[in-house]
Amino acid sequence: AAPSALPRDLEGRRVVISAGGTREALDPVRYLGNRSSGKQGYALARVAAQRGADVTLVAGHTADLADPAGARVVRVGSALELRDAMHTESRDADVVVMAAAVADFRPVELAASKIKKGDRDPEAIRLAVNPDILVELVKARSAGQVVVGFAAETGDEAGDVLHHGRAKLARKGVDLLVVNAVGDGLAFEQEDNAGWLLTAEGDEHPIPHGSKSQLAATVWDAVVPLLGT
Ligand code: CTP
Ligand code: CA
User: Fold this and answer.
1) pTM for this entry
2) Might you name a Gene Ontology BP term for this protein (predicted)?
């Protein structure tokens, strides 16, 4: 292998990372989905493996991404499948990272056969709230397990990106929350950061603009000091 400047500071650690978007089925051929590429979660998996971790990547739908070298990949479709996989895989993990874009809602009804156009007005799609997987994982976590969440925030009349990030950190109960500022040129923005890394201890580190690999390295740099021996 090529010589690497990366630290091997995740050697012997088991990490579980979710990535990509969930798809919520309407019928056998249709779904509600989102535009998540999965790239950030894949970068986290790749960098963790390079730093010596035993990596499991739970992947929803992604852009056409190659499996990260050294990671075991578990594929899922819906939020409920992602939830099952994360509970199973995280049981003996040292670190759990929720980078997936989980659909907040799913259709109440799943048609057994393809919905036909027919000759009447379409019916509204009724939605149910999906479970908050991250909150569940925090509740179920084993002693010493580090849990990391992601949030994309724009800021609005209620507050700026950092305000929403702080509120989400508290609501989710995670050790680390990576807050990405999205939608550039927002009037509410005061600083030109890519976002913040917020810790449960109240530390707030600005994240400079950079690649997804750089952000992955920043996240692992913040996780390592939280790991026990
Ligand atoms: N998340 C999750 N389960 C859900 C929704 C979100 O585990 N049902 C996780 C995401 O993977 C992410 C974090 O929670 O790590 C924040 O997701 P986000 O969509 O920003 O938060 P929500 O709680 O859904 O709030 P909102 O969409 O209203 O901002
Ligand atoms: Ca959401």
Assistant:
1) 0.95
2) coenzyme A biosynthetic process
